[in-house]
């Protein structure tokens, strides 16, 4: 024990300094760490600079294409809008003069072409086109994106990237993969003269160079590229699945021409791959030296290695999931501070797990509710239909009507095939529910809705409005007397629904607890309103959902806000249109 007094009691580094010098740990760690840090930093900087450069080149190239297309459309519109320069009086020329006029006009269109231009055409409402005779007008009319244009086009429409099927020589769907994609723009013709009235300018640019840049980012750098329009429409995305991580390196490049946004996302692991190779060699050399140092240190430092083993055992237990385990700290040296840091790390891990568990709990609750409702409704519907039929035979029309509306409400609530339904369909379920209340209470309440027509196609979680109306009749109205108003509006990509009543209102103490996520709900009271709010948060992110305001004796207003989203047509319909 006297020999240990030669070393400072609070410094393990001083106790093991002689043995680490023998094994050359200090120079190896110092030089290796510096070399690894410097080289990995250079590699990451070069990789990041390369990615930034390619993303910028992609932005410049696309902006260049868009600017060219817009300039072509503007120049052509300026030309055809002047009746002193051109007036096309007939689609099919019947005279030599008309033939010359058409040829001169098509030469003018052809003069705007460059090496990257696929085609420039002016298409009349009948499907006849002016330009190079390289497309089939009827095939153009059958293109899915052409069908999607409004009958009266009053502004430019960027079609995005697509494979054209209307060019002469296109054989069948099997050639789609070999066809070069194009970037399309459709602009209304401003001329009000001759056959060009209500026509459209179609400009298509070859997108081969752009897709080469895409492939360079996607294959060489394993990047994920997306291009989205200002309204959120997806223009392009890298094929395959990609899991986004917070550590990803992201470059966002806005396009000046049409407000598209290019996003290039590079996994951090891809940038760190070269550094990891160097790190592996460094760790291998460090381990070999550490083994030698530990063998020498073991002969003289059993007390120290005992502490290390205890700390190692603690780490193993934590690794198996026993997060309540803590390292025993009984010294103030480096091992003691390491134990303190390890305990702090475990506590932070527990905090993170608790936060993740809370989010997962919300999802699990939604899944359990879905499983709970996955009963076979046929027996219930058949039984209610039989009761309705017997009620009508016995002359109980009021009971038959109530059963009819009840069946419609249950059909909407028990249909678990769609979690999101159009607002129009949800309101139909509401109307059947209100018909039941009319049969129950009589015409003692009023119902009014505004703004529904303009927002009826937007999606809303299924079975969200009926539970709120049910609360109104059960808690706000006395014997069904009162007024209910529903108003819907849309602004800046968000849908806002207001549900108002002039009933009894909610006391402030209860109002403060209705949407509290930390409140334990042991009964069904208040559970319906909370579940409706959670549905919106699960489908549209946590920042969306309900806000409730109420004045006792004057009524309650529920405001629900969620992102605008429309139902996507199925793929079979899309293929028919193409």
TrEMBL record:
One GO term describing the cellular component = plasma membrane
Q: Which residues cross the membrane?
A: 12-37, 281-300
Superkingdom to which the source organism belongs = Bacteria
For the Histidine kinase domain, which residue ranges apply? 465-566
UniProt subcellular location:
Cell membrane
Report a single Gene Ontology molecular function: ATP binding
* InterPro entries referenced in this protein's UniProt entry, alphabetically: Bact_2-comp_sensor_kinase, HAMP_dom, HATPase_C_sf, HATPase_dom, His_kinase_dom, Sig_transdc_His_kin_internal
Among Pfam families, the record links this protein to: HAMP (PF00672), HATPase_c (PF02518), His_kinase (PF06580)
Secretion signal span: none
Cite the CDD domains for this sequence: HAMP
Q: What is its EC number?
A: 2.7.13.3
Q: Which UniProt keywords apply?
A: ATP-binding, Cell membrane, Kinase, Membrane, Nucleotide-binding, Phosphoprotein, Transferase, Transmembrane, Transmembrane helix, Two-component regulatory system
Catalytic activity reported: ATP + protein L-histidine = ADP + protein N-phospho-L-histidine
Kindly indicate whether the keyword ATP-binding belongs to this entry.
yes
Output this protein's name.
histidine kinase
